[in-house]
Amino acid sequence: MIRSLSRFFPLWVLCMACICANGSAQTAGAAMQIQQAQSSIGQFNQTHAESRLDAAIASLEAAGAMRLRENQRHGLAAAYIALFAAVDRALPNLPPGKLPLVNVVPPRAHGVSYPAGVDPSAIRDPAVRPRYEQEIRDNETFTQRFLLASSLRRIDDRAVLLFSGFSRDAFKSAADRRALRAQIQQSALNRARRSRLLAAVPI
Amino acid sequence: MTAWRKRIAVIALVTGAFFAALTVAAIAQFSIPGLLNGAKDAAVRQALSQFGASIGDQLPIVVRSSDAYPTTSLPGAPFSPGPLPRNIAAAALRASRDGTIELPPGDYEFTVGVFCMRSYAHSPSGHRYLVAPLHGAAADVFTALNSRLPSFNLDHHSVQILSWNMQAGLPYDEMQPAQRAIVDRVIPDYKGRLTGDVYQRIQDQYQQIVGRVPGMPSFEDALGRLGTTGQAVLQLQRLREQMKKPPQSYDQLARELVPFASLIPTEAGGSGATPWSRYSDRVLVRFVTSGNYATPGTYQVRVLQPNGPDPPADVPFSNIVNNPGVDNVQPLTQSPQGGPQPQPQPTSTPPVSITSETVATIPADRTRTTVGVAEQVVLTFSGADAHWSVSGGAGTVDPSGKQVTYRASITPATETITATDTSSGQTATIVFQVIAPTEITDEYIDGTIEHTQGHPDIGMSVFTYFKPDTVSFQFIVVKELEAPAVADGVYAPENGMGHKPNKLPMPIVAVVPGKGSKWAGSDEVTSGDPGTNAPFGPGTITTMIPYVYAAANASAGPFYPMGTAQQKCMLYDVETLRASKAGANAYSKVSNPDNT
Fold first, then answer.
1. B chain contacts of residue A142, beta-carbon cutoff 8 Å
2. Element (H or E) spanning B107, and its range?
């Protein structure tokens, strides 16, 4: 039997590899969800793809409902903190009060001005048109940054709401909540962020 | 090596030899001179091979006769199951996401109902099975179904028919009402996975290949040349047709799908005690039965003591299949029997409920159930954990958790969200009315008049709001579309000029009570100045500007129409100027000093 097996050893190895791989795939649960969340946050840090933050939040939501051991509760809190840190790092620094423009006003030249948002091809003056086109491009660049900031703030608002619910459900006793507050205080988050999160933890 | 390991090895060898023979046969077929040749022949073979591989990934369930966890002898004391509260497995399984439950070290025994996982195969009594992982595109759906079944007092036959429906890749819409009802009640969160007709999808894929690769055989011929995979598709199609028009009675259906002829033990099942299967380092399991597909079996579990500090171990229940080891006998999935076990009593447990809190902090009522398109709401279930589903629109909800995010439909809808308690099976619903912006209004920004003294030009800056203010449109982005101006009189030279706004959509910054959702951009409304000499006659320049919106996380679209705003600048007479847009107005006179 063994002699005949050896002739087909690769096939046998393949069969066993499939079986073993499936066995290891059985382990799931909170630890895996937290790991997935951390992984998604890591991907966001590299790509700034907001979908990765959405994926991280979905993993945090799922983990929050699972049976959490003591270290997993704080592991989940740490993943939330990592998410908030990632958001803070990625938020563009926008000039206060500046808004993107729906239409750019073309420069006035030689006594002629064109309506805001006019197609640049309508401007005949070869000196004015490139200036106008550049202003349009600048506005679009700024709009991109503004869109990113808005998107991150929306994600942030949702994550804070979920973090508040998680801290309420998973840290029920006063001692638990003290420990969570300490974890937030000791994190590397900036002061404003720490204050916001501390306010989200129920008294 | 145990007898079963030897058996697996032999089966693997036979399977390998079988596939090798098939390949040789297939190559021989394609090598007939004059039929196919050279590069064309190779292209067809490659396309067929790729098609075969893609089919394998789409079959709802795949049980290879060689699938099995490694077998082992039972270490330590003889198997001696202790008493276990009978509802423990059911309650834990309801909450399980992967078909396993945690059990502390010890011996356990469960009575399990079983379900056929093949069509047109026997189910001899007393067959010997090995525990194997559940494979296939719908393996997770079967796992969820079998995990939750003990929580529902359902007719076993109806569930078996549903199982065959799913094995046939039959879409939800084509199932019988009884089976659709089970999906709605037990696995509503997986309904989206049951929408496509698997066979039709496979056939469509093949037709695409036919369009690309000349010389491809007919679909039926191709399946015939794809060996066991092709046979599996043909069997799926046969089962699909049968399930679309099932016989009058379950007995008749069962006789056709599980031929009655051989309810006797077969040689292939082997004799002697059923070996234990090693699911993990600490968990050994086996399924034993003296009956067949129509009778319950016994599922035995031993959880070994750990070396480390983590006593419970994950024990598989519904993420496995009991594999007969041969192709002509029914593999059986299992679910702990609900019958004699305590059933959830909806009247004796507190009703479950859903609370909601909008992510947007304005409007102040964050429990409102009228929301803007794409608006996000955090939903909280009163129980520990729930499976979630949404119907009625294009909205989405995260599939599981105590707290989840609901994202409203991108178009107006009435959406119902259902949470199914993973512990008790109880359900709660919440209904949201989803509305789109109904009105675009502009607001003149004080001090922004643009004018050049002695010229017929006027302009102003405005803020734009989208009504109503009773919801938040923070989760959409908005842009203007291009539109030509219609101009006359003094502005006639500008007639037909394009209005080319920012091509990027812009977000909403906040909801302003009384005004609506405020758009992030400031908008410039200007007449332009054609540069003609005084005196000026009256004139107007008007642009009808369409507005569209998209989900905030999809700023590239798709876009949905939300209304049109009229932008108009005019010189009334030789002196008075007016700029207006969507309710905002600014006035000046030709003789006014600059920017007044």
1. none
2. strand B106-116
ipTM above 0.90? no
d(CA B116, CA B297): 13
Which of these, B406, B393, B392, lies nearest to B354 by C-alpha position?
A: B406
Q: What is the pLDDT of residues B383-431, one digit of tens each?
A: 888 889 999 999 999 888 899 999 999 999 999 999 988 877 788 999 9
Is residue B15 scored above 50 in pLDDT? Answer: no
Q: What is the pTM of this model?
A: 0.60
Closest CA relative to residue B427, chosen from B438, B435, B416, B437: B416
Q: Are B521 and A102 an interchain contact pair (Cβ–Cβ within 8 Å)? A: yes
The side-by-side arrangement of strands in the sheet containing B396-397 is B354-358, B376-381, B403-407, B396-397
Most trustworthy range by pLDDT among B69-83, B89-103, B523-537:
B523-537
Residue B163 Cα to chain centre, angstroms? 19
Measured between CA atoms, the residue of chain B closest to residue A116 is B526
Contacts of B1 in chain A (CB under 8 A): 1-2
From first CA to last CA, the distance across chain A in angstroms is 70
Are B528 and B455 in contact by the 8 Å Cβ rule? The answer is: no
Put simply, the answer to whether B133 touches A147 (Cβ < 8 Å) is: no
Instruction: Tell me how close the Cα of A92 comes to any Cα of chain B, in angstroms.
Output: 15
For residue range A52-99, what is the model confidence (pLDDT) as tens digits? 999 999 999 888 877 677 778 899 999 999 999 999 999 999 998 889
Using CA atoms, how far apart are residues B116 and B257, in angstroms rounded to an integer?
Answer: 9
Give the pairing type, strands B370-372 and B427-435. Answer: parallel
CA gap A199, B242 in Å, rounded: 61
